[in-house]
Task: structure prediction
Amino acid sequence: MGLPDASGDLSSEMEVDAFRRLFPLRFYERHLAESIRPDGRPLGRARDTTIALGAVTSADGSALAKIGSTTMLAAVKMEVMTPSMESPDEGCIAIDFHMPPICSPIVRPGRPAEAAPVVSKQLSDTISSGKAAWMAYLDIYCLDADGALFDAALLSAVAALFHLQIPAVSLNDDGKIVVSEEDGGKLEKEPVNKEKRKLTLRSIPFSLTCILHKNYILADPTSEEEAIMETLVTVVLDSSSQLISLYKPGGAVLAYTSAVQDCIALTRQRVRELQKILDEANSGMEVD
Amino acid sequence: MAGRPGTNPTTYSPSLKTQKTRSTIFKDQEIDWVRPDGRGFQQCRPAFFRTGAVTAASGSAYAEFGNTKVIVSVFGPRESKKAMMYSDIGRLNCNVSYTTFATPVRAQGSDRKEFSSMLHKALEGAIILETFPKTTVDVFALVLESGGSDLPVVISCASLALADAGILMYDLVTSVSLSCLGKNLVIDPILEEESYQDGSLMITCMPSRYEVTQLTITGEWSTPKINEGMQLCLDACSKLANIMRSCLKEATTSSQE
Result:
């Protein structure tokens, strides 16, 4: 394509890998000029996404979400708390995002990844719910880190909340809440809620991360793309296409109005895809 | 309302399991224990293994034994930390951690130091460290759900992950544990059985070479009982090794297609 290169003849197959390692930016720009990416995707397409509900039986709600190779496992555990004075009818949700050392060669045990608290904060800003005096501990573990961590984390968190079933509990003599017996034999305990119930969610957030590079917009980057081209934009829309959040943490490329509008349009399309995938996963569970 | 990061209200789990006291069945030695999942005393749980679970790692494996689910990633051989001295054999670094939702009652998901060092001792006898001098092989395990007999599953899964990463070993390492409930020996115990046990025996061995890399015994054991327990475990280990081998063969044939 007329690019000057000092590494001689690069058209032989064995040297493609070397070129990819030595001159990653040029490798990508050659592909972008043809409007395609090395893994064969067009610029605006996200990777294959799957959701599996109920992955972990020891938690009250759980989900495993995969976007390409990025894998996230989210689980919700419910505990009882005394509500605060100002809001006696509200519960609480605590969100924690972990990157255990298995997910990526750059994470070491004992030294948390730099991305972890950033994603944690982003998730807390996006999600909100609450019923009675329940404390929901939402923990998200990254099992495989290959780019677009926030998107996969949000998707798995939303799916886990979808799958959550608040256990049937009753009030004990000591004033403590205890899980109701399955056979319902003990009558002196007053049941607070007779059966397991699902959480009602107002509006569901979905997100898409895009990379801006010169005048190209790449949707759903892999970790290789994120490492080379550093300007990321994350757009979070809810199921009625209302904007919840727009996040652009610095980067060399400026986000002009047209770029932001294109990102939002790509996200809108992605929301429809994700909504369908989530509904399929949900209905798949109910058949059981 | 969204979680307020500053406040940490004290919470408790409404689960009944924390309030159950140990059953008095075993005071009377005549009554037998019936396993909740309907297995025989000498029957292990069905094992499921899959390699290549984590694409970011050099090698990885996922193991599922009943409700115990474990992922192990192997990174390396890669550069040792700069502070370490020169060594003409390789180093092995192990780390085992639990997710916060792995146990029935939510606990802080911290590293389990004793499991990490036990995993290290179990594996170091089997890995040919001379093949990667000056470098380190990192083995990281994450227990997604704890359903009993966690460490043996972690060890077996780790050796499968090492094989997937291409690290040279003398043989695959498999591990099985046994619980002593009154006068009964129960193999591959679940969480409930482990909480009632009087003693436990865990063997890690290299089945084809018939060599034991680690033996851990807790509780009171008479010599004939130890012999019986060891024999049961060694048989189970060799069967488990066959399952692991067929999993590896399947992985290589499917990648060749």
The CA atoms of residues 32 and 141 of chain B lie 36 Å apart. Chain B touches chain A through 46 residues (CB under 8 Å). DSSP finds four helices and ten strands in chain B. The beta strands of chain B are 11-12, 47-51, 59-65, 68-79, 91-98, 135-145, 174-181, 184-187, 199-206, 211-218.
